[in-house]
Amino acid sequence: VKGFGTVVTGTVLSGSLESEGEVRLFPENKKLRVRGIQVHGDSRKSIHAGNRAALNLAGISQEAVRRGDQLALGDSLLTSYMLNVELEILEDVSSDLKQRSRVRVHLGSREIMGRVILLESSSLAPSTVSLVQLRLEEQVSSRYGDRFIIRSYSTLGTLGGGRIIDPAPGKSRRTQRDLVERLRRVAGLENEIRVEEVIYLQSVRGVVEREVALRAGLSVRQSVKWLQGLQSRRKILCVDPVRKRFVHVDHLERVGKFLLKVLETHHRNYPEREGMNRVEL
C-alpha cells in the first residue's frame, strides 16, 4: 500500500469498510481513518466479510499497533480483563485442568496470559465441557459467541477451546450467587431468556440498548424486539430514556426495599424531622 501512514493486514470477519472511512482500534478504542485499501495488491474502494486486506491507517504509529488488535466500528466490541466462557477440554490432554491454572488464551490472532477460574468444579478432566471465567493480564475486545483456544503456559500444548458467553462480566457480588445457572441460560437457545439474563447479570448498572446485541449475540433489530417484549411483561425497566439503559426489575425492587429501610431508620432516629434530603439519601 503506497503512501504515508501505518499499514496493517488481516481478514474481514464481518460487515464492510470503505476507503476514507473511520474505524476504531480495539482494545484501545482509538479513532482512526482509513487512507487506502488493497486486496491481493489491487486498490479497492471498499472491502467486505471474507476479504484478506491491507489498510493504510492515518493517525497512529506502527509501534502503537500490536498483533491481534482489531479494527471495528465504534460500539461494536466490548472490552474487559475478564471473560465468562464455555470451555471444552480436549480428550487427549494428559492431566486435569486445575483451579487458577495459568494459561495462554488465543482470541483471534492475539495471545494473552491469564488464569482459569473454574465455576462448577475444582478441576476439569479431559473431554469435559464447563463454564469458567478467564481472568486476563491484558484487556481484550470481543462479543458474545466469539471463539477462543487455551494452551498450557509452559509446554505450549493445546488444552481446549470454546466460545465466549459474557464478553464483559459485571462485578456485582449479588449476581455471583447463582452465576452458573444464569450463564447456562445466556448460553442457551432462547433469545428472550438470554436478553433478560444479560440485563440481570449487569445488576444495577444495567445495559444500554446498543450493548444488548453484543452481549446476546443478536442483531440490533432482534435485540430491540426482545427488549420491547420484556418491558411489556415488566421484567425490565428503562431507567434512562436518553441513553436507553435497562435494568432488571429484581434489582430495582431490591434497591427500593433498601431505601425504605434507610428512611424508616432515619424517621425512627429523628422523628422531629420531615425527612431526608436527596444528598443525605
UniProtKB/TrEMBL annotation:
Any one GO MF annotation of this record: translation elongation factor activity
CDD domains: selB_III
InterPro entries documented for this protein: Beta-barrel_SelB, EF-Tu_GTPase, EFTu-like_2, Transl_B-barrel_sf, Transl_elong_EF1A/Init_IF2_C
GO biological process: selenocysteine incorporation
Domain Selenocysteine-specific elongation factor beta-barrel: 94-169
The Translation elongation factor EFTu-like domain, residue ranges: 5-71
Keywords for the protein's UniProt record, in alphabetical order: GTP-binding, Nucleotide-binding
Name of this protein: Uncharacterized protein
